[in-house]
Design brief:
By secondary structure, this protein is an alpha/beta fold. It has 12 helices and 11 strands. The longest helix has 40 residues, at 2-41.
Length: 352
C-alpha cells in the first residue's frame, strides 16, 4: 500500500511539474530570441580615446568627433587621455574590455601604444588611428595629415626667407609623439641642406602655449639674434610669437611650423611677421569617425587616409589675411567654423 501510494504521489508531482517546465522553456526561448535579435539592432558603439582636453585643438577635435558620431548613428564612449601618454596608455585596454564596435584612438605615445592597439585588433575590434601614428602596423586605418610633407614645404620656405644662413630658434613638440616625430623628420631633412643655418634648440613645449612662450622668452633674453624661428605645432608657434610680441626685438624674424590657428594668424598679421603654417585640422575627427563607421559595417577602408592631399588642408603661405577671422577667438583652428555648429563653437569659447 505504501509503494502504491508513493507511485501515485510521484505521478501527481510529475503531472503538476510538466506545465511549469514547459512554461520555463518557453520563457527561456523568448529571452534567448530577444537577446539575439537585440544584438543585431543595438546601437553600435565607438570608443573615442582622446588626447584629452589639454588644449584647444584637442577640445575642437573632441567636439567634432562627438558631433560626427551622432550623425553616423554611433554611441560614443569617451576616454580622456589628459594630454599624457602615460595616462592614455591603460585607457586602450580599458576601452577594449568594453567590447566596443570600434576604437578611434588619438595616439600620444607612438611606441607604447603599439602593443595595446595590436591586442585590441586581435580581439576583433577595428582600431582607427586619428591624427598620429604608432610604430606598428596592426591597426585598421590611419587618418592623418602628412606632417612630414607639410613641414618640408614650410622648412624650405623658411630657409629661403633666412637667406640660407643665421641662427634658427627651434621650439619642439612632445617627445615620442608620432606627430612630433613626423614634423621633425621633414624639418631636419631640409635643414641638412643648409649648413650655414645653425639650429638653436630652445626646448620642447609639449603642445603648450605657455611653455613655448617661456622657452622662447628665455632664448630671446640670451642675447642671441635669430634669423628665423620654428615651432612644432600651433601651440609652439603661438608661444614664440607671443614672446616676441612682448619683447623689444623688431623686426620679428620669419616663422614656420605652426598648425594654423586664428591666434597665430592674428599675431603674425598684427606684428608684421612673415609666417607659413601647416593645416592640422581638428575637424578631421569627422573623417576618423566616418572611417570607424565604415569599418563597423565591414566596408573596406584605406590603410592610410592622407588629409593633406585634400586641397582645403594644404599649407598656408602669406598673405594671411584671407584665413584670419576676427569674430572668433585665438584658439580657433582654421576650418573649425565650417564643421562645428555655432552652439559648439560658443560652448568651446571660440566666439568672441
Amino acid at each position: 500500500m505504501v509503494r502504491l501510494h508513493q507511485q501515485s504521489q510521484g505521478r501527481w508531482y510529475r503531472a503538476r511539474l510538466a506545465p511549469v517546465l514547459i512554461a520555463v522553456a518557453a520563457l527561456a526561448a523568448v529571452v534567448w530570441v530577444g537577446v539575439s535579435s537585440g544584438a543585431h539592432t543595438a546601437t553600435p558603439t565607438v570608443a573615442f580615446i582622446s588626447q584629452g582636453t589639454s588644449n584647444s585643438w584637442a577640445a575642437q577635435l573632441d567636439a567634432a568627433a562627438k558631433e560626427e558620431s551622432a550623425k553616423d548613428g554611433l554611441k560614443e564612449i569617451y576616454f580622456n587621455g589628459q594630454g599624457s601618454g602615460t595616462t592614455q596608455l591603460p585607457l586602450i585596454a580599458q576601452a577594449a574590455a568594453q567590447h566596443p564596435s570600434a576604437i578611434v584612438l588619438v595616439p600620444l605615445a607612438a611606441a607604447s601604444d603599439t602593443g595595446p592597439v595590436a591586442r585590441a585588433m586581435s580581439s576583433g575590434i577595428p582600431v582607427i588611428l586619428c591624427d598620429s601614428a604608432i610604430t606598428g602596423n596592426k591597426y585598421t586605418s590611419l587618418v592623418n595629415p602628412n606632417a612630414t610633407t607639410g613641414a618640408t614645404g614650410l622648412a624650405k620656405w623658411l630657409a629661403g626667407k633666412m637667406g640660407g644662413k643665421g641662427n634658427l630658434l627651434y621650439i619642439g613638440g612632445l617627445p615620442g609623439n608620432g606627430t612630433t616625430i613626423a614634423y621633425d623628420k621633414g624639418f631636419y631633412a631640409v635643414m641638412k641642406q643648409y649648413p650655414n643655418i645653425h639650429i638653436v634648440n630652445g626646448g620642447n613645449a609639449n603642445y603648450s602655449i605657455s611653455t613655448a612662450k617661456q622657452l622662447a622668452a628665455t632664448a630671446i633674453a640670451s642675447g642671441k639674434s635669430f634669423a628665423g624661428t620654428w615651432g612644432v605645432g600651433g601651440e609652439a608657434v603661438t608661444g614664440i610669437l607671443q614672446a616676441y610680441a612682448d619683447s623689444k626685438v623688431r623686426p620679428i624674424p620669419p616663422n614656420g611650423g605652426a598648425a594654423a590657428t586664428n591666434g597665430a594668424l592674428r599675431l603674425a598679421i598684427q606684428e608684421h611677421v612673415q609666417a607659413a603654417m601647416l593645416q592640422f585640422p581638428p575637424t578631421d575627427a569627422k573623417v576618423c569617425i566616418d572611417t570607424a563607421a565604415k569599418a563597423i559595417k565591414h566596408q573596406k577602408v584605406a590603410k592610410y587616409i592622407n588629409i593633406s592631399l585634400l586641397p582645403q588642408y594644404s599649407d598656408i603661405y602669406p598673405p594671411l589675411n584671407k584665413y584670419y577671422k576676427a569674430k572668433y577667438s585665438d584658439d580657433l583652428y582654421v576650418g573649425s567654423d565650417t564643421a562645428l555648429s555655432q552652439a559648439d563653437l560658443a560652448s568651446l569659447h571660440l566666439i568672441k
